[in-house]
Amino acid sequence: MIGVGFVVLLLLIGVMGFSPLFALREVRVEGAGILAVEQVVDVADAPMGRPLAQVSEREIAERVAALPPVAEAHVSRGLPDVVTIQVVEREPAFVLDTHPAPTLVDAEGFTFAEARETAGLVTATAPADPETLRGIAAVLRETGDLRVDRVEAHSPDSITLFLPEDRRVVVGSGEDVALKMKVARALLGATEARFIDVTAPENPSTR
Q: Name one Pfam family in it (predicted).
């Protein structure tokens, strides 16, 4: 019985590995929003017509993960003839004012796609270096319900928030940002100052 079962198993492996009945005919994409499904399929370059057992999930996932908007890519094969690509896209933290079109930036300071829709996202004017962009993202994470109209930064140590009523908060770098924003919110509520500097949160200044 064991011998017969082993032979049957080998036959099944042979059929699935080489038979056109189990050849790849369809690629499905899940989770794409910023990316078009067609774009993911093109980059995936799945070997249509190849027996499913010979299709490398790892190679397809690596190609898709190389797309800038993709944080993670997972690939699975499904009988009889389908490969499914699950895409996890990067989450935008803010919009970088770039030419000719604004760019989405994630929490790690990674620029990854043209910003076609900017509703709910703050726009920043800054150099496109990762350290500065990471600092801006860190500051914006701590703003809470504080309304920020825009952000400017000339370097990682010169982040400034522009608020309604022509008020601004100079934050400096993204270090100690939780404390800086706690101090800034307290001063915004306690004074009518239009300029608040919390670069050194233990010794803030206003005017």
A: POTRA_1
